[in-house]
Hints:
The protein is α+β, with helices and mostly antiparallel strands. It has helices at residues 3-25, 29-45, 47-54, 60-74, 78-89, 96-111, 126-140, 171-185; strands at 113-120, 143-150, 158-162, 165-168. The chain has two domains: 3-108, N-terminal domain of the delta subunit of the F1F0-ATP synthase (Peroxidase, domain 1); 113-185, Glutaredoxin, CATH 3.40.30. Strands 2-1-3-4 form a four-stranded mixed β-sheet, sandwiched between helices. The longest helix has 23 residues, at 3-25. The two termini are 36 Å apart.
Amino acid sequence: MSEPASISTGIAARYAAAVYDLAKEAKDVKAIEADLSALTDAMATSADFNGLIHSPIYSRQEQGAAITAIAAKMGLSTIMSNTLALMAEKRRLFVVPQLVQALRDIIAEDKGEVTADVTTAKALTKTQSEKLSETLKKRMGKDVTINATVDESLIGGMIVKVGSKMIDTSIRSKLSSLQNAMKEVG
Length: 186
């Protein structure tokens, strides 16, 4: 892991632990889970939001005012709104993606769940997602929450990551293996 990535992860882990402790104390973990979904959607769909959290050209005051307005518009909980405002004040908004992931991990661990990152060529239907979740639950022995993403370059199949384990059944991977085998022959 590169040093900047580990620093970001460390910063995010400290904020995540604090947010989770506050939410648990206030019995408001469900609101934090909703906030995480909203933030994930914002990061996935809004280039402006990503620009705000990653760009160094905005002053602390500009970031603080913008993130406070965005949090209010998104209907984020008080705990998350205050955390984002503090992060803006400390110039730490760049770790929001890691914060979201760290909070998801903490919440899942507390619930006895594990998160599976699933990448497919086409979006999974609800039935496919439920069957995959059941299969993974049998293998892992824990409830599995699926974090699905779509990558059309896979052509078909899927890549499933659970913790440090990865299963790659994508056609892209199989074609790459075949290509490597062909290079060895000729």
